[in-house]
Design goal:
Blueprint lengths: L13 H29 L16 E8 L12 H29 L5 H7 L6 E7 L12
Antiparallel strand pairs: 1-2
Keywords: Iron, Metal-binding
Organism: Helianthus annuus (Common sunflower)
Protein name: 1-aminocyclopropane-1-carboxylic acid oxidase
């Protein structure tokens, strides 16, 4: 079964989270918005007159942090954005390790067990999917 939980009081500063959000929105506006609009036009969605029931409406890219970062390979990222995302990744990694230790404690496992299990041959794999959901030009045609 799948599930989720919300993490509060996680220790990542609101200042850092605000910078990540602001820079992500700025990057989308500067570098991705026009490409997304071109994709929408290429698919002919602006001319659609009937209901659409299966549409992935997101503009996204993926930053891999571990085991080897791809942040230098992503085109159009400004230096400051790269740096804030590196800082964000370090904070997320610390948080993930803390959560794994809490899960170990709650499952009656030795501290560090889950980290070791997830470590794998090359180390842990982790990244950030950066997504933006722009306004749909024809929201009345989308089935919910």
């Amino acid at each position: 079964n799948w599930g989720f939980f919300e993490i509060v009081h996680h220790g990542i500063s609101t200042e850092l989270l605000d910078r990540v959000q602001k820079m992500t929105k700025g990057h989308y506006k500067k570098c991705m918005e026009d490409r997304f609009k071109e994709m929408v036009a290429a698919k002919g969605l602006e001319a659609v007159q009937t209901e659409i029931d299966d549409l992935d409406w997101e503009s996204t890219f993926y930053l891999r942090h571990l085991p080897k970062s791809n942040i230098s390979e992503i085109p159009d990222l400004e230096h400051d954005y790269r740096e804030v995302m590196k800082e964000f990744a370090k904070e997320l990694e610390k948080l993930a390790e803390a959560i794994l230790d809490i899960l170990c404690e709650n499952l009656g496992l030795e501290k560090g067990y889950l980290k070791e299990v997830f470590y794998g041959g090359k180390g842990p794999t982790f990244g950030t999917k950066v997504s933006n959901y722009p306004p749909c030009p024809k929201p009345d045609l989308i089935k919910v």
